[in-house]
User: Fold this.
Amino acid sequence: MNPVNMAIIGTGFIAHYHARALLSLADVNIAAIIDTKPGAAQKFADNYNLNAMVSTDTAGFVNREDIDAVIIGTPNKFHLPYAIEFLNHGKDVFLEKPMALNTNEGKKITETAISTNRLVMVGHMWRFDEEVKYIKEAVVSGKLGKIMKTKGYGIHENWGPS
Assistant:
């Protein structure tokens, strides 16, 4: 099986967490590093001994068939345009939180993912922490009674025991 070729867009603080996690996966290859600051992508690649393409511009990567997915860890104002562009070119997208600047932008990203049949994940990393797992177990077990959650566009459902 061929590895999943990833591009990391943005080399700030959170990108280091992604790089370390990706490097621990045998079936993933960090194929490209992109940052608008000159030299930042190369410095990042060198820091992790990556033999990756480096660039200051995302445009050269949206059509590349050797890039399967991207991690967008840029300032929030770029989440929508980058996500839409990569989704429309057949790439799966991981977005750092927040997903978008507002609800309408989030809906546009969601609709584009659905229409292009691509995956989008938003990096709410606490979801995987022990404390969050404990709270989820408390809700599901019924310790906290019935909990209501919002699903989709304002539809509510019970979450927890019946």
